[in-house]
Amino acid sequence: MKKTLTMILAMLMVGSTVACSSGGGTKDNNSGSTSNQNGSNAPAKKVELKVFLGGLDRFRDQFDKYFAQFAEKEKKEKNIIVTINTEYPGSENATQILKTRLATGDVPDIFALHAVNDVPDYYKAGYLEDMTNQPFSGKLIDGIRKLVTIDNKVVAVPLESLAWGFLYNKKIFNDLGLKPPTTLTEMKAVVQKLNDNKITPFMLSYKESWIPQLFLPLAVGGLGNSTQKGFVDRMNKDQGSFAELKDMFGIIDLVNSNGTGRVFEVGNDDGAADFAAGKAAMWVQGPWDADSLLKANSSFDFGVAPLPLSDNPASTLINVSVSTSLAMASSGKNKEVSTDLLNFILDDQASNVLYQGLKFNPVSKAHTFKPYPWVEDASAYVNKGQSYQDPQIPAAVKDESGKALQAYFSKKMTADDVIKDLDKTWKNANAVANKK
């Protein structure tokens, strides 16, 4: 879970005096002093940063390489030797680990959090540093900036800007003359055509509860912005019920009864490998798995489309969100270097390579790389107004929905049981929030 990345990149030069015309760092082996690009011979300052990257283990290589670039830059420009301790807990328990750390004082200098779901609570608890006046803040695309802003303060660097619904295998769809459906009835016709051609319609990977949980934001967002407007507000006031969204079980049942086997043995990594290998035509999953999909099959051609929830096409919408973001702890001990690192995350040149390598969407006005095809697929819906901003749902409700939908698949809970369970969990979350 924990990996120490030590990046001491001072140039060791042999001899009593070494001249460097470029002004880069040099070290005198006799005195132990190190000069920076300004020519100072002051001893190098040493700083150790703790960076908590929950749910980002699949990007370990990209981040570790980028942090090494940062350490080299910090050494050259500020004569600071930076050691970065990175930690990559999985999505299943990252949130709980982080909350425990913050509550007990074992505070990471920089940590990953979900912009929509986590920022309000963490900000209210006083954990987030105000970064509004930092250079990266002014570079953010306007629509992205508002998703990491609270009380007119920018409190995080956005990493994953998302437009998602479900993934589909373009080759399979093209070979059979299929198009992404806009209603539940159309989706049933697509499923029938796939079954007739002996192609499994859906990839099922419910080993990790966060995957079936994905139905929740899609249902709350799609129905809550069409036929059941105001649902989130009613739930926050203890005046609503998931019975209003009972239509969501139509698509859930269709997916569950037309999917791959070994459901509780397959997690995200295996699911990505199987989907990229063509073992199913669709997957209720997001483009955050693009890197895993293309590592499994570099020629895999997939698209993104909104998930139909009913026979009302007005509910078939793309979810637009900023998910994983990086924040600086307000009680961190190394704020100068932490600030430098967060600004480097959106460096005008280096971040283009980083974000493209991560297969993330552009978030900065300085990002000039061409969006990937699946991004353009989703953007086509967004540009036509067929989208909504990711709904703000209590974290406890999202966690519980994943477990409840696992139980629903295995017939340990009925639809009514799930509705009652989620209603109760949301009310409990309201009670906790009102006590703070």
Automatic annotation (TrEMBL):
* Lineage, opening ranks: Bacteria, Bacillati, Bacillota, Bacilli, Bacillales
Q: Show the InterPro entries listed in the entry.
A: SBP
Which SUPFAM superfamilies does this chain map to?
Periplasmic binding protein-like II
Which Pfam families does its entry note? SBP_bac_1
- Lineage top rank: taxon: Bacteria
Alphabetically sorted, this entry's keywords are: Signal, Transport
Residue spans with biased composition (Low complexity)?
Answer: 29-41
Which range is the signal sequence, renumbered to this chain?
A: 1-19
Name of the featured protein: Extracellular solute-binding protein
Report if keyword Transport is assigned. Answer: yes
User: Which PROSITE patterns does the entry link to?
Assistant: PROKAR_LIPOPROTEIN (PS51257)
Family stated for the protein in its record: Belongs to the bacterial solute-binding protein 1 family.
Q: Where is this region: Disordered?
A: 23-42
Name the source organism: Paenibacillus planticolens
